[in-house]
Write a structure and sequence with these properties.
By secondary structure, this protein is α/β, with parallel strands linked by helices. It has 9 helices and 14 strands. It folds into 2 domains: 156 residues, no CATH class; 114 residues, Rossmann fold, CATH 3.40.50. The longest helix has 15 residues. The N and C termini lie far apart (60 Å).
Length: 290
């Protein structure tokens, strides 16, 4: 039997901190999402015996794309420990392993013992699905999502208040690991390194493929007020970590996407304004003016 739930449904739910609404569904067999705005949940039509297990379900359709996962799923990580106080055996359900998921889970102190993957869910279960459904592909944005995102952003704004400025700029090459197949691409940054070296500019190359601790990444990007990176998730996510920075973005992917997707436009604009960041878009062959 399938249950269809959208953000306006009257289905049984729980409200956390007067903000986070969680739909409660029993004996979930599998789940998917329709039109980016509807939970399509297949539940067992037969009685299921055994000890019930509580699950918090956060991964959406594009969970294998870094930026999507952060702004659609990770925004709900701050309430996991609150749920653990209510349901001591609560587990977080993910649809697959990724290094970027692991470093965010570690940052929010969620141990591997509290993680379950969808295929390993117990048949006897009670699943909590967050609302609003936070897909970046949805053609609208709710005031509730804005508030939830603001609380998520505040976690990073208040983390590591001051870091010594060590470099004239930070250069972040595009990742080569775990890139979403549909968005994978390469950028040659040789001309940028050449320009920095010719000008004797002190810079750090931060290869996020090698990052295993989000604290290290946050500290690194805050060690300079100038950041050079490639457009896409590298920009949208690291914009969260930067404070009063000038971010040189190679490419024009997000400006084009922001014209179509209202939520992405809101995310970029609200982070840049809240963190005091200045965004400068460059074409592939341009050199940042530091």
């Amino acid at each position: 039997m399938n249950i269809f739930i959208d953000d306006t449904s009257s289905h049984k739910s729980l409200l956390i901190e007067d903000l986070y609404k969680l739909f409660i569904v029993e004996n979930v067999v599998r789940y998917s999402y329709d039109k980016h705005t509807i939970h399509n949940i297949h539940v067992s039509s037969e009685p299921v015996t055994g000890q019930e297990q509580y699950y918090f379900v956060i991964d959406l359709v594009y969970h294998e794309a870094f930026g999507h996962w952060v702004f659609e799923s990770a925004i709900y990580l701050p309430i996991f420990h609150h749920l653990k106080k209510i349901y001591k055996d609560m587990k977080l359900v993910l649809n697959g392993r990724k290094q970027y998921k692991t470093i965010f889970l570690n940052f929010f102190a969620i141990p591997e013992s509290d993680i379950v993957y969808q295929d390993d869910m117990s048949a006897k279960n009670i699943c909590l699905f967050p609302s609003p459904i936070s897909s970046l592909n949805a053609n609208s944005i709710s005031e509730t999502y804005k508030k939830i995102f603001s609380k998520f952003l505040h976690v990073f704004q208040t983390y590591i208040h001051s870091v010594k400025q060590k470099y004239d700029c930070i250069v972040m090459p595009r990742q080569t690991k775990e890139n979403y197949v549909g968005n994978d691409r390469t950028y040659d940054m040789t001309h940028i390194y050449k320009s920095l070296n010719e000008k004797n500019i002190k810079y750090l190359v931060l290869n996020t493929d090698e990052i295993t601790d989000l604290t290290e990444q946050i500290t690194s990007v805050r060690s300079s007020s100038n950041i050079i990176l490639v457009d896409g998730a590298a920009f949208t996510v690291n914009n969260i970590f930067c404070i009063k920075s000038k971010i040189f973005v190679i490419g024009n992917i997000t400006p084009l996407q922001a014209q179509k997707f209202v939520k992405l436009r809101y995310i970029i604009d609200s982070i840049s304004e809240a963190n005091g960041n200045t965004i400068v878009y460059l074409d592939d062959k341009a050199v940042p003016c530091l």
